[in-house]
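Input.
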Amino acid sequence: MTTADWTLLSLHLAAMLFTALVLGQAARRIGIPAVVGEIAGGLLLGPTILGRLAPEVHAWLFPAAGPVASARTAIARVGMLFFIVTIGLDISLAEFRRIGRRALSVGTIGTLVPLVLGFVMCYVFPDVIGVTRKDLFATALFMGSILSLSANPVIARILMDMGLFKSEIGRTIMSATLVDDLVGWGLFAVILAEFAPHATAPGQGVAILAAVFLFVGGILLAGRFLLPPVMDWVHRTMPQPSSLISCIVLLALLGAAGSEHLGLHSFLGAFVVGIALADVHRTYPRPFEAIGEFSYAVFTPVFFVSMAIGADFIAGFEPWLVALVTAVAFLGKICGVFLGGRLAGMDSRQSLAVGCGLNARGILGIVMAAAAYDAALIDLRLFVACVLMCVVTTMAAGPALSLILGRHALPPEAA
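Output.
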């Protein structure tokens, strides 16, 4: 990068962080999670608004391609990995066993129902979707996978903003996202390998799924037996807390690299690493607090602004297609989670609240849609519809939780 590129990148990130702080605080003042204002900041700075009102300024400050755009994406994504490690810390294996039946019921049924509805939607409305008979099966599988997804970094931020992250509902939601993301990203990895125009490993779908579950199981076993003694040794023999911080970041990057290599999103690997480090966190909390506070204050606002800054939500917009995809997304996830919660013994209000929380697809859904568009699995119309669905479900999650639970049901720090 040149000196001019570095200057522009600094201004670029400063504008994003300033907008996130202002609109995030405005969102809090009117009683909704800050993440809603931060996403609105992406719409304001992106091609949707600034690109139309001041195209020259937008083209200079937020170039669509080149080293500055690539650096912004990398900084936001790598920084978010560290935040995701810290949100996995409250979901230890012991915690998962304690609420395992509930989380598995909510996660499994809440994943299968939208998956089936997304698949069926393409066969019932092929003309609205705009898919040919030849590509119908692959497109239907993709829609099932993206509608089954829940975005754990977005959901965690919403729960933190509302003071619900450590509540029973918050723990259930975050535990269930592990099931959602494993199924959604695992299926998507198979789709890319088997059905994309440039399929990477045709005929290897079962092997890919097996590798996914071995990868996750291996990280969790390492967290149970290997990582605590290794971190104890690091704590005894190296300067602290810097050495433990370095080791945590190293493990997050390795987990991210492994999950990305398998065709999953890097965030899933970092999330599982966080779960594996839960026992270490209880012994040595200070390094995790340092990572969490900085990433929450700096990287997450930039990340959520970046969700909407790269897409033009007017180009390629077809109202009927957007309405169909968004309606099926709401119906499938909320109804599926509600059914799973009721079967697990939760009451109707809790089940509905968990369903609304898990309904946020966030940046993970946008990333999946972008990957499918780049692989020529979907066209521009369907890509825009999927991105808008992700933004709408994310912005609706916090207000819906507040409405369902009521302010009297929130913890004191949230109320």
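The first helix runs from residue 3 to 29.
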